[in-house]
Each structure stands twice: as C-alpha cells, then as structure tokens.
Amino acid sequence: MRVTSRVCILIGMLLIASCSLAQGTWDIREPGADLQVKCGECLAALGSKPKEVQFGLAADANKDIWFMITNEAFFDVLFKRASDGIAVDVVPRSLYDCATGAPPVQTRFFKGTLLKPTYLAEMKRSVQRGPNGIAVKVGHLPTHLASDPYELNLVLLKDRNVCYYNSFYDLDAFRWDLLNMGLYMDSLTYGDRADTSRNTASTRIMRRKALHFTIPFQKNKSTYSPADLQPLYDSLRLTDFTIKRIRIEAYSSVEGPEARNIELQQKRAESIVAALQSFQSPSIETTVQASENWLEFLSDVLLTSHAELATRPRAEVKNALLDHRLAAQLEPILAHHRKALITLELQRKDGLAGLREDQIIRQFEQAIAEKNIARARALQNTVMERIADEELPGDLLDRLEVPAQRDYAALINSRVAFRYFEDPRDAFATYTALLDLQRMLPEDAHINYNLCAVKFRVWLQGGSQAVDPAQFKREIEQLRTKGIDEPLVMRMLINHHIVMAEIHMAKGEYARKDECIIYIHKNYKRIPMVAQDLLSLAQYFASFANYDKSIDVVEPQLTDVNASEDLLFYYLNLTIFEPEQTQRDGYRRIMQNAATKNKKRFCDLFAPFGQGGITFQLLDNPYLFSTFCETC
Fold first, then answer.
1. Cα angle 549-550-555, degrees, rounded to a multiple of 5
2. Considering only Cβ atoms within 10 Å of each terminal Cβ, which end of the chain, N or C, has fewer?
3. pLDDT for residue 476 is more than 50
C-alpha cells in the first residue's frame, strides 16, 4: 500500500499597493502603511501554522470554487470575525504570451479577475467535512472565465483588508513508499520499482550484470563498424554473455542546428547498436536518447576567455559559434562534449538455448535426484529469467518439482521470492511460505532477510494490528547477528521509521513523527542508493513539507550530464518558484540539462496547476519567461 498526495505549495506574498481602489475590487481594502496593525493577527496566525496544515483552492464540476484546509481548528484561527473572508483571483494563461516579450506587470493585489469575496458566515453555511479536513465554498467561476486555461489564486481578508495573497504549485509527494530492499534469491535481487513520477510499473526482475562505459564521437565520423568495437568487445569479455538490452544517451556539442545535431547523434548511436548486434544472433532491445550537451558546455565555457557565453540564450550562443575562429578556439572543450554514454545489460550464456520444456524438466529432475543442488539452482535461475522475459510459460516453474526438505530450502526460497516479484499483492501468502522455510533453517540469513522485507508489506497491507512495531524492529536488528551487511540492515531500519512516521502522523503525534523524519535524514547517506531510491525519499520528505530535506537529497546528484531525468525534474519542482535559485549559474545549468533531456516534460512544467504543470505563474519570473519562450 502506498499513500500518495498532491501537495499544493503556497507561494505567499504581501502586496502593499499605493494606488486607490479601482473598479472590480468590491469592498476590499488595501492596508497600505497600516499593514501590521490591520493584518498583524492574520500574519501571526500564518506564521504559527504547522507545516502539516495545508490549504488550497479547487473548482468542481459545477464551477463552484472551494477553499480546502486539512485542519478545521486552524480555519477557526484564520477567520474569526464576520468581516474576515476570502476572495479568489482567476488568472488566465493568456496573460503570459511570448509575443509580448515580457511577463505581465502586477499593479494591484490581483492579476486577473477578482471574484466577489466570501465572508465568514457564508463560508460556514457551506462547510463540508471529510477525513482530510474541511472544504467551504468561496465563489463560482463564470463560464466565460472557465473557457480558457486558468488558475485560482487566494486572497485572505482580515476585516476586509488584503492581508495575504497566494498562488499554488503542484508537487508529487508520496508516503509509505519504502526504499527498495530487494529479496535474496541466490544473491540480493531487486524487482523493478514503480516509477513514482510517472505511475508506471514493471514486474521484470533485474538480475543481470550491467556495464557502463563511454564512447567519444569523432567530429566528422557518423558511423561505427564491428571492427571499431571489436577491441571494446574483447576487453569487456562479452563472449560469455548475451547482450539483452542497450541504453545509449548520445550527446552532441552545441554548435550547429539542433535538429541536425540530434539526427547525427541518433545515427551514431544506432550504428553502435548495429555493430554490437553483429556479434550475436539474439536481438538486442535498444533505447536511444539523443540531445545537445548544454550542461557541460555551460560549465566548461566558464573556464575559458569566453565565459560570457554561459549567460547568453541558446540562440545567441549558436549564432556566436558560427564564427569559425571562435568555434576553433572552443573546439578542445566541444570535442569532449561529443560522446555516447552506454549501458549494456548482460545475461550469462547457460547452454540451454534451444532446449524444449520437457528436456529442461528432465534435466532438473535428474539434478534433484542426484542432489546436485548447484545444477538445479542454475536450471531454475535460467527458467525464472526466461519466464520474466516471456520466453517460457509461467507454469513451467511449477513443473520443476522441489522436495520440501532442508537440503532444498535455498531453491524454494528463490522460487518464493520470484513469485513475490511477479505479483507482490499477496504479501501474506509469501510471508507464510517464508515462515515455513524459517522453521527448516531458523538461522539462514537470506530466509530471515526475506521474511523481514516481506513483513513490511504485510504491515502496510494489514495495518498496525498485523505487526508489533517494537518486536519487528528487534527482528531487523537481529539480522546483524545472522551475517546480513550493515547497509542492508540500516535500509530496513529507515523503512521502519518511514512507516512509524505515518502512524504517528495519523495519531497527531507530530513531535514523534518529526523524530522519525530526523532519523531518516540523518542515516540515509549511510546506505548505497540508486536514483529511484533518492527520488522516493525526496518525495517522502516533501509529503511532510520537509522541502529542505528533499532538496538535500536530490541536489548533489545533478552535476553530471547523465543525471537522472526524474531527479532533475523533481528538483525543479522543489525549487523553480524561488527567484534567488533561478539567478544562480549552477541552477541554470541544471535547468538547461532538464530541458535538453526532455523538452516536452520541461515545457509541461508551465502548464496550468492541476493539469500536469507546476503553475504557469512561474512565468512571472523574467528569466523563466525568456527560457520558456526560447525553449518551448
């Protein structure tokens, strides 16, 4: 079970305007120089708001607009008098037109159309209570405003005075999404995780050896032959393996037309795949991504006498590089930027290619009869891998009969783990099977590790009644005495605190919840983590409004051109609304890298709030406005 939420981050600002009231402002007053006197109570309440209290605006199917807050008691703190209330500013996307050359100028306390304010008595008449707080109706969206993309901004009123103005942005945040612990089969094995930023999942089991290497591209060379790659193939000793998958990230230097650069890199990458394919007959599953290498250019050019290029728009950089003398001066760094980052996923050759199912079964039965456990394990592993690749039917594994005896416990453990990876929904059945194995081999480290890993899912599926948290923590700690490595034990202890934080949160025990969060943040650097783990952890911290901790997790991972796309975009989600961030050269390089890796995904950041974007009001920032208009 995973609890997910869409976190509405409040971008608040005080707006002290000197202009007189204009038509369309209803009975709302601007406090002017009397801000602290007229709004002090409201500002103090907002300043004392627990980070766990969230609020936002949404329009329903009837175009009624609702103010939602997760804590009814805090609603009563914000709104006490009859003249306290809310107004809604409906902001149209059309305000941010690239043809104007600049973002709109805000001259009053609203940008678009200010709807009639709603005051306390009227709000209380419409209150609706739910498990996640309350909602009160604060307006109705006119049809003519709903026909085009729009966003809803919040104006908080104290005695009819404008005291606070908020726009919102969208951020994925997930709770109870545990760090991937894997399960022991022959060795520690990890099933693919759900991609928490795109909500896709795979049941394929990643057990294969993976190799990572870089091939530089020569400036005037567009194709590669088997002879070019033969030394590489030999040096990697690939004759004992079949290449199952190749992922290539191909980068061009930034001079020249973008479309031509990407086409050239695509051809170079495809020629590498074709050359490697010539060494084997099984087809290779291939993923190729081609882009310009802006990240390294913007970083490396700072070390030259042409450092000013790092601050100029892409179009100006490309135009400058049309000067052959400048291009020649920068060629030493440009040459470094043309390359392919290659990941090979390998499967060891097992000698079973071409065997029929009945032949595999007979060989397995013979291995069991001879108590040749190593041979039986090799056959079973091959069958499981080929089932995962859909090369063999799933029921073949059930036809490989294994006696329920101590000598064969390791074979059964691997099989139980494989079935769990295929379908983790019934964690309790897996847990029961592992308990049976534990009774055969009570001190077996791998069986005990798997028991603890699956017990987390039993806990989440069955609630706190299914597992005693204190006893479970002791079981995890006892894995150390059974030979499980410390980083794996620490990973489980972090997951234990992830679940306990949610339990404390549900009980309103915020201090104890914070203790768990502090423990997780203090210890996560002690364990090896892949990009998916880091993304999951960052989203977890964000779900509790610990955005500084989320940034601390993600930011160090973004310095290389091959940084994870998901981490890049999540970092932008966390930080892009802060003008002081976007002014940093390092931040701009990160943003350019994201736009280079996935242009559509970058442009979609500026789609309307609630429609897949963060918020188009990010374009109030002149740098983001110019970057968006240049890129999108």
1. 105
2. N
3. yes
β-pair partners for 215? 340
Question: DSSP states of 323-373 as a string?
Answer: SHHHHHHHHHHHHHH-EEEEEEEEEE--S-TT--HHHHHHHHHHHHHTT-H
pLDDT tens per residue, range 370-390 = 999 988 988 898 888 888 878
Q: pTM for the whole thing?
A: 0.81
Q: Phi and psi dihedrals of 426, rounded to 5?
A: -100, 70
For residue 259, what are its two tokens? Answer: 């479309």
Q: What is the DSSP string of 489-509?
A: HHHHHHHHHHHHHHHHHHTT-
- The model's pLDDT over 174-215, given as tens digits with 9 standing for 90+, comes to 666 788 898 988 777 776 543 333 333 333 444 456 788 899
Tokens of 389: 């690749």
**Distance in angstroms (rounded) separating the CA atoms of residues 623 and 587:** 12
CA atoms within 13 A on the CB side of 516: 22
445 contacts 208 by C-beta, under 8 angstroms:
no
How far apart CA 539 and CA 533 sit, in angstroms, is: 10
Q: Are 210 and 344 in contact (CB under 8 A)?
A: yes
Neighbours of 303 (CB within 10 A): 10
Structure tokens at 534: 């880091």
Distance CA 168, CA 185 (A): 46
Give yes or no for a contact between 96 and 619, defined as CB atoms under 8 angstroms apart.
Answer: yes
Q: Where are the beta strands (DSSP E) in 416-486?
A: none
Distance CA 249, CA 477 (A): 41
| 363 Cβ contact list (under 8 Å, min separation 6) | 355, 375, 379
Q: Which domains does the chain have, with CATH numbers?
A: 3-175 (no CATH), 203-348 (3.30.1330.60), 408-631 (1.25.40)
Task: From 526, 522, 528, 531, select the one nearest 558 (Cα to Cα).
Answer: 531
Give the list of residues 6+ apart from residue 447 with CB closer than 8 angstroms, or none: 184, 409, 413, 434, 437, 438, 441
214 φ/ψ angles, rounded to the nearest 5 degrees: -125, 135
| 482 CB-side CA count, 13 A | 21
The CA distance from 510 to 2, in Å, is 20
pLDDT at 1 over 50: no
Residue length, the chain?
632
Q: Which residue, among 421, 491, 500, 418, has the nearest Cα to 449 in the 3D structure?
A: 491
In angstroms, the Cα distances linking 29 to 36, 83, 163, 200, 494 are: 14, 11, 10, 49, 51
Q: What span, in angstroms and rounded, lies between the C-alpha atoms of 515 and 342?
A: 42
